[in-house]
Amino acid sequence: MNRSIASGVLSVVSTKVLVLVITAITTPLLYRLLGVSAFGDYAFLMSVFAIYMIFVSSGITDGVRKYLAEDRNTDDWSGHVVGFYFRLATGFAVAGAALLAVAAYFEVISTTFGDTYSAYFYVLALLVVLAQFRDYARKTLMGFGLERYSEPLKVLNKVAFVAVAIPLVYLEFGVMGVLVGHIVASILVALIGLFLVNRQTSLASVFSSPPPNFPRREMLTFNSMSIVLVFLLMSLYHVDIIMLQRFGESSHVGNYKAALTLAEFLWFVPLALQTVYVHSTSELWSQNRFEKISSLASRTTRYTFLLTAVMAVGLAALADVAVPLYFGSDAEPAVEPLILLLPGALGFALARPVLAISQGNGQLRYPVAATGLAAIINVVLNFLLIPRFGMHGAAVATSVGYGSMFAFHIMSARTIGFNPLSDARLSQAMATAGLAGLPIFALATAIQNPWFALVVVPPVGLAIFLGFAVLLGALDPAEPFEILAIAPDPIGSVASKFCRRLQTTPGDSPIAMGQSLLVAIGLSLLVSGLVLSLVGPGIGMAHP
To answer: Fewer CB near the last or first residue (10 Å), C or N of the chain?
Structure first.
């Protein structure tokens, strides 16, 4: 990973962390203030809106990011790209908003979803326009490589939403108050974002015509394929909620959304990588640096697996404690769907950076096919399982759909021309997750006090996991410090020194790997037994 890509990743990851913290604080507040049923209605509206916005904005935001990052021999290339996509954004936003308003006016919405939803869709029509320019401004800044501006705007959007929505919900404006929060935040971010874009290249380019050699057809083709790709991708996020609302009750949707919210916390780093890699790898593809791309993809796959797996193991071990404490006792039915969702969430996390690198190539046929197969599996299983098993069926169907994404996108990547598994060390990583999981679950089971469990299990579990990762060869001893070395000083400089001291040749012989595996199995069983025998009698053998 070169330093320019790494700095972009760090900017996005730091923003993801901030947004994650804000979301982690405010989501249970909304759940409690709205109530389970109203929270379910809000989740349903946001799912419908997210899928609808795919057709309004996805090709535009992906396109402006990709083509601004390219260096083409055309006069004022950046200005023409910005103007071209601004005109597209305006036309699609106006058409999208008008369509929603007309559907609400002629009672299509009330007939399909119920009378209470018509007013909500008028508000969503306004939000279509505002969200379009909010996202256009942010993604344009990213295309310029200005993550230092685009990412704080994302934090601002979240903070402004919370500052408006929470008081309005507290004052009993309900779901409408939450929607007003989205509107105010989108206005603020769109205005600041467009101002920053104008500082890079004048928005007067909106009114200028690009030269004859400007690749309109190529851009429109990329846009159309991006819309298909994002639609298939987002269906994996939202079709379960929409179908659960259709076949179940709002309270079921609310609890299922609570489980999804926790499962999706695993994705903040993979989503950050996907956000940066689309435009960062476009340059590598244009230079035909295939070995560099494969190296980047495989290391990313390995790190993503390890990071997501340790989070999934910890969340599964603490699910019966974390969910009621986080959302309240009303959310206890969300525990089992959460555990069912975690395996698929891990697979989905692995697929996202691979998909982003494929998008950077610009040939979207194979990524679309891979995502389409996963989406079909997801829809069919949800249709079969939700009517019979409710939110448990939705969790199983969605987990299988998520997990299949990784397998299909590995095949897609190899067809395109890079190998995400060349240094992924999946066997070592899976052994690490399985063997480290035993003592982590033992520790979570042994600690009776829920608050003490939440404080102790995560850091101890991380230390156990890292130890097994190094022992089994999933991580080289120097690699944790190598990752920290890209951080700002003094952390980066100190980590660099440790990295140089610990630098070793990656990989072990089959005999050494076999010996390490036997040692790891023995340690896993030994530590698990010691935890249950020593910690259990003093703190309790089960959670209350």
So the answer is: C
* CB distance 19 to 158 below 8 Å: yes
Q: Angle, to 10 degrees, between the axis of helix 3-34 and the axis of helix 147-170?
A: 0
**Which tokens go with 31?**
């759940």
Q: How far apart are CA 383 and CA 307, in angstroms?
A: 32
- Is 322 within 8 Å of 311 (Cβ atoms)? no
Alpha-carbon gap, residue 376 to 401, rounded angstroms: 8
pLDDT digits (tens, 9 = 90+) for 205-226: 777 777 777 777 777 776 677 6
Q: Find the helix or strand (DSSP H, E) in which 138 lies.
A: helix 117-143
Q: What share of the chain is helix, strand, coil (3-state, %, to 5)?
A: 85, 0, 15
- Counting every residue written for the chain, the total comes to 544
**451/449 Cα distance (integer angstroms):** 6
Neighbours of 114 (CB within 10 A): 10
Distance (Å, whole) CA 58 – CA 39 = 26
pTM listed for this prediction: 0.74
Please, are residues 395 and 421 in contact by the beta-carbon 8 Å criterion? Answer: no
CB 137 within 8 A of CB 190: yes
Report DSSP state, residue 73.
S
Tally of CB atoms within 10 A around 165 = 25
Buried b (16+ CB within 10 A) or exposed e, 198-236: eebbeeebeeeebeeebbeeebeebbebbbbbbbbbbbb
